[in-house]
Amino acid sequence: MDFLEDSKDFKIEKVFEFCPNEQRAFGVEEMVKPIPLAIRCNPGEEAVLLSYEDGVWSWHFKNNDCVSNRDLVSDDGRHISLFSVPFKVQDRTTRGLWSKVVHVFKFATDWIQEGSSAAINNMLREYEGRKIKEGFKRIEHNLGFIEGLTTADPVSDWGGIKDVMKDKKKALLFIHGTGSSIEGGYADVPQKILAVLKNKYPVILGYDHFTLSKTPEDNAKDMLSTLESTGILDTGIKFDTVTHSRGGLVLRSFVELCNGYLNVDNAVMVACPAGGTSLANPGKWDSLAKKIDLLTNIFFFTGGRR
User: Fold this and answer.
1) Shared domain check, 269 and 147
2) For the chain, which residues score pLDDT lower than 50?
3) Domain that holds residue 52
4) Which of 45, 72, 190, 203 is placed for a possible disulfide with 171 were both Cys, Cβ 3.0 to 4.6 Å?
5) Residues 18 and 50 both lie in one domain
6) Cα–chain-centroid distance for residue 23?
7) Confidence (pTM)
8) Residue 164: CA count within 13 A, CB half-sphere
9) What are the pLDDT digits (tens) for 208-226?
10) Running DSSP on this structure, what letter comes out for residue 8?
11) In whole angstroms, what is the distance from residue 306 CA to residue 304 CA?
């Protein structure tokens, strides 16, 4: 929501909160009754709704299946888009109030045409660019994954790293998962453990990268490009790696698609979707609405940190 409020592509027009007359009860069957909404838009402008209920964010697009929807015009010449927003209700009164909050966003009509996938990807790239500075981050053994690491500049003193590693060409590398970061994904790793590892790993690195606007192979190629350009691979460095979730796919891409196997020894892959994930089901991405719903809830549940 913070990103959308600051985005140049969207503007929040209104915010509605719908509260039922009755109160909510556990164990009572709920029914879904749609809330009809009519939103006026200026020429060259469209609307989209973002609702929040029960911890879930959902996007709602105008009812394109309604032929008359395109023909409605208000007295002031603006066109009217019709929406139907699902709302949970119960047929009895008990304890527990709840509500549904609906944000009305306006955007330029040409933003979401045939090139909508590219537009969304650019928006995601912009979002991730505000949260993360991509690249290798050096982790100090006695400090660990400190606050601000994710937005810090990546390693620039590779000469210093080479000096530290001249006797023991070994490094420990952490790679985070979807919607996360090095700082958020590994913040709970105790500093004492890292301090103990200093004898085995003179250098500890973390790789911060975009996970929603780039593929794991893109991330792996970016890693390889940095390692090659700095000459660190010429030292014969060997990485032991710790990955979480999608980070394991980045490592696999680095090893299997970028010939990185020459520089990787051991790997600990936690919760890696190596056998695939239901998120990759084409049925979940076959429409713009489903695509943005998935991405929005990834943002909400990960907070860009986990």
Assistant:
1) yes
2) 67-69, 92-97, 114-115, 301-306
3) 2-112
4) 203
5) yes
6) 34
7) 0.70
8) 17
9) 999 988 999 999 999 999 9
10) S
11) 6
